[in-house]
Automatic annotation (TrEMBL):
Residues 237-392 form the Glycosyl transferase family domain. Keywords: Transferase. The keyword Chloroplast does not apply. PANTHER family: GLYCOSYLTRANSFERASE WBBK-RELATED. One of its GO terms (molecular function) is glycosyltransferase activity. This is Glycosyltransferase family 4 protein.
Length: 416
């Protein structure tokens, strides 16, 4: 393992890759998207010049400080997107808001390349000594490293969130097929790799050693930001006075929702209806999970004791988690695991598979239960459902100590 060398003062400028956030316009944000957004918010507060790089179907766009601020205002909903321009009608199958976003990029950019062209000539618009930061794994194979190689004194830092596509390919989406290529170019070209946990660093560096080079790296836990709970935004029919539990995250195979459904089926067989707690499944449907989707579409428990929610506001999710008897995380694998940390900050107990990353972030605070032992999970859920939860609202941030973004950036910005 090679430790990064602290830099002497800030770089001449920073270049933040925002390809992922722009690609998510008109869709909800995932955990990785929220990390990219946190970098955008923080870097805009610094005195150092900030540029941004975005690749879309229309080409690659370079924005300066003013353009990046204007883009942030749109991404965070402070300013509406403009009108789609004529060129955007080549993408008329895209939602109107995404065509508007592409059009605004063209209006805000100081330079751009055509579609499918590497962004090499954008390098001349960047000051010598610019530091490129890639958080969303976009543009790694689209010429970003080559572009930075043309900037005198330029350097590149990449944040690795997990290596799940390599460790557990059976749980990965079809879009993860090029993950080996992405990790290989990071191993070969990155000046620094940022890891969201020590556990991620250990596993990723093991893979990169097999790829021929392990770049200098630093582990910096992600910040945990909890939105203020807002029960007024909860859908009608959610009764927080009744014992309930929450499973939060994309409905995909590695999240192991099937274990929870088996438990609730057991409850239905063995408990009077009034003693069965509610299970709220919060998250969009993902991939390769047909049997779980079929269960949600056909089980008689859905709508009675199991409820599926997609598109809840952040305030509603926080209110639901805070009001629940527990957050359930039977995942087979996680890169970081934001939901358990957020639940901990809200004062809500967590039952989780004993993954190393959970222990690194939350220590012994969760209730750990191996996912191979369904009846241990069943009994722990019942125990929590029968334990009265205090009615008073937990003060934000006072329930449990969690990592902060300031701590993260205190580490990262010393070496990027």
């Amino acid at each position: 393992m090679t430790q990064p060398t602290p830099i002497d003062g800030p770089p001449a400028a920073r270049l933040l890759d925002l390809t992922r956030l722009v690609s998510r316009v008109a869709r909800g944000w995932s955990g990785v998207d929220r990390v990219e957004a946190a970098y955008l918010r923080h870097l805009l507060t610094l005195p150092d010049p900030l540029f941004s790089l975005i690749t879309t179907g229309r080409g690659t766009f370079l924005l300066d400080q003013d353009g990046t601020q204007a883009l942030a205002d749109r991404l965070f909903g402070r300013v509406d997107w403009g009108k789609p321009d004529l060129a955007s009608y080549l993408f008329r199958k895209q939602p109107r808001v995404k065509r508007a976003a592409f059009s605004d990029l063209a209006r805000l950019a100081i330079a751009h390349t055509r579609r499918n062209r590497p962004p090499l000539h954008l390098a001349r618009h960047l000051p010598a000594g610019t530091a490129w930061i890639n958080v969303g794994h976009s543009n790694l194979l689209s010429g970003g490293f080559e572009m930075m190689g043309m900037v005198p004194g330029g350097r590149s830092s990449v944040l690795i969130h997990d290596t799940i596509p390599l460790d557990y390919p059976e749980y990965s989406s079809p879009g993860s097929a090029d993950f080996t290529d992405r990790l290989a170019i990071v191993a070969r070209r990155a000046d620094l790799v940022i890891y969201n946990s020590r556990q991620t660093q250990i596993v990723a560096e093991r893979w990169m050693a097999g790829l021929g080079r392990v770049p200098p790296g630093i582990a910096a836990l992600l910040g945990v930001e909890v939105t203020e709970p807002n029960s007024r935004e909860l859908p009608e029919g959610i009764d927080l006075s009744k014992p309930c539990f929450v499973a939060l995250g994309t409905i995909e195979p590695r999240k192991n929702h099937r274990l929870l459904f088996d438990i609730w089926e057991d409850f239905a067989r063995t408990l009077p209806p009034e003693q069965i707690p509610d299970l709220h499944v919060v998250g969009r449907r993902g991939w390769m999970n047909g049997d779980v989707f079929a269960w949600l579409d056909t089980s008689p428990l859905v709508g009675r004791h199991v409820h599926e929610w997609n598109g809840l506001s952040d305030g509603a999710v926080s209110a639901l988690v805070q009001g629940a008897r527990g957050l359930l995380m039977p995942s087979f694998a996680e890169g970081f695991g934001l939901p358990p940390a957020e639940a901990h900050a809200l004062g809500t107990p967590v039952i989780a598979n004993p993954l190393p990353v959970y222990r690194e972030i939350l220590g012994n605070n969760p209730v750990y239960a191996d996912v191979g032992d369904m009846y241990s999970w069943r009994n722990k859920i019942l125990e929590l459902s029968q334990t009265e939860k205090p009615r008073q609202t937990v003060a934000m941030g006072n329930a449990g100590r969690v990592p902060t973004w300031q701590e993260h950036f205190n580490l990262v910005l010393k070496v990027t």
